[in-house]
Amino acid sequence: MEKLIITAAICGAEVTKEQNPAVPYTIEEIVKEAKSAYDAGASIIHLHVRYDDGTPTQDRERFQVAVDAIKAVCPDAIVQPSTGGAVGMTDLERLQSTDIVPTPEMATLDCGTCNFGGDEIFVNSDNTIKNFAKIMLERGIKPELEVFDKGMIDIALRVDKKGLLKHPLHFDFVLGVQMSATVRDLSFMANSIPAGSTWTATGLGRNAWTIAAATIAMGGHVRVGFEDNLYLEKGVLAKSNGEMVEKVVKMAKLIGREVATPTEARKILGITE
Ligand code: KMH
Ligand code: ZN
Question: Measured from the CA of 82, which atom of ligand 1 is nearest?
Answer without folding.
Answer: 5
